[in-house]
What does this fold into?
Amino acid sequence: MRPRQRGAAAVAASVLLVHALLLGLVPQAPGPGWRAQPPRVVQVRRIVADASVPAPRAAAATPPATAARGPQAQPLQTAPTAPVPAVAPMPPAQPATESEATPDPGGLTLPQYATLLPPPLSLVFELRRGLAGGSATLNWRPQQDSYALSLQGQAFGVAVLAWSSQGGFDGAGIAPLRYTESRRGREVRAANFQRDKGIVTFSGPTTQHPLIAGGQDRLSWMVQLASVVAANPALAQEDAQVSMWVVGTRGDAEVWTFTVLGRVTLQLPIGTVADAVHLIREPRRPYDTQVQVWLDPARHYLPAQAFLLVRASGEGTEFRLQELQGP
It folds into this structure.
């Protein structure tokens, strides 16, 4: 064969070899990157996926109408229904879970207690807030259909707290309408109990809460708790609990559950207080308030001593009864 003919033959052979490689007719030796060849991975996956499908010969042997009703079609019809019970909605009566930071969605049920309200009076407390010491006066002024309640505190001649609650009464006891916190004589925050609409709104946050029966604010709870224990002596026993829904001014609303730790004798500026009922409310969130309160049976179960502590910040306010005044 001439050189020119040999060259043409070699070129033709090379072209045929390349086409054979592209068509997969010639096996390739496994090199370093053989595991990463995408065509072979795709072919394997298709073979596995097709394994569950009936062979073409079996499908041809069975008429289409029979195949739709045959036993092989049952798993495909029943499999999607298996997870349905796991995603069934919760019953509407379930309350919100503890981890939710959103407003209570309603449906919350708390005990309803009989109440025995104290008469009009004023309690003067020795006040300690951090390193500052002073005095605070709790004024309770009930009328036939309404009440006014305030707590004013001073330290070194400067107002350190000014809380006010106004409202009326219902079957659950005290029924607040408006709670405010003031500073230097000016109202800065408020919670509004819109009883005609069944909601609680706030002067700052746009948060709204459904109004819960027996709900209190962060001042009225003091008199409400005294009224509940005064009317229910069994709730003054160790391990007894009193729960109420308490609203602040920052959009917060929590269930406060007070647990009776026992009875103690206190030595206070007003003198000896015997058989004081010691209760504690543990916070459910880091920046909520831990409350300890000692109720005086001789003074309508009103607080003789109280300690409010924000655990996360360590800020605490202590009240110790110093004087009891009439209206």
In short: The first helix runs from residue 3 to 22. Helices lie at 3-22, 38-50, 56-61, 64-69, 74-78, 220-231. DSSP finds six helices and 15 strands in the chain.
